[in-house]
Amino acid sequence: MRAAVVTGPDSAPVCAEFPDPDQRPDRPPLRLVGAGLHHVVRGLASGRHYGSDHAYPLVPGIDAVARTDDGRLVYTGLPRAPWGTMAERMVTPFDVAVPAGADPLAVAAGMNPAMSGWMALAARREEAGELTTVLVLGATGMSGSLAVRAALSLGAKQVVAAGRDRAALERLSDLGAVTVALAPATPDTWADALSATVADIQPALVLDFVWGPAAEAAFTALGRARADEDGAPVDYVQIGSLGGTEAALPAALLRSRRIRISGSGVGSVSKARMIAELPAVLARFADGTFDAPYTAYPLSRVGEAWAHQGRTRAVVVPD
Asked: Membrane-spanning regions, if any (predicted)?
């Protein structure tokens, strides 16, 4: 079959012949409709992501919208290495129907970033019984923007969106989020900007899609805010690291606040739990709550897709 093939950690994929995936009697092969080129896909292919097994050659791609033999559109993923979803055919352990009204390529572009915030929000709501105040760091990227929309759709009483893109912040404000602009600025002024908001709206849940200096600014802001000792604890969930892979955590913050710092990603959330949440997320693509701008590239131009930059997400489609 034709597939995107990566031959080494520093190589961009090329369209080439690759062996068909191993067959499973209970899982007939699916045909590609669209596979999103997410940050994690590049990280796994290059060996920089903690989930990479550093084995080559491989077919990149962790999820996709595909078509079954009887013509149904399904969302699927998690194929067994070295096969990925950027191939004409794939064998996967699950599939969930794409509901009517959902743009299949928007689903391919947006399900992975949408799930990154959704899982942390769903876990918090299950544990606490409700969502009160949510702070999203990196709210103007695709994952962060979808997390803001998810928090609002799940009934959060107040959502604070912090990011650097003022135009994107205006759109989130129109949806009902309180916004904090972090640019043009330095990490010191980020802390000042966040402190002013955190003092008035003390978040019970922080979703951090950037880490690095932005996380340090958030730690400073949380440390400055006076907390009621009888108030709800703060859950700080690290999800992405586009701003840096390291962040200094002040000891005083851990002693002065009821704060729990954790991560959400592959390995920290079970596959079964993620699959159980998929229908609820897909429904939001169908009803217009979620959207994901995309640029489609045929499989023969996967190298161009790999180099794609900008506000849209590259989606690899069949030729």
From this structure: none
The secondary structure of residue 299, as a DSSP letter, is G
Q: Where do the domains of the chain lie, and which CATH numbers do they carry?
A: 2-97+291-317 (3.90.180.10), 113-263 (3.40.50.720)
Tens of pLDDT along the chain (319 residues) come to 999 999 999 899 999 999 999 988 889 999 999 999 999 999 999 888 888 888 899 999 999 999 999 999 999 999 999 999 999 999 999 999 999 999 999 999 999 999 999 999 999 999 889 999 999 999 999 999 999 999 999 999 999 999 999 999 999 999 999 999 987 777 778 888 899 888 888 899 999 999 999 999 999 999 887 666 656 689 999 999 989 999 999 999 998 888 999 999 877 888 899 999 999 999 999 999 999 999 999 999 999 999 999 899 999 999 9
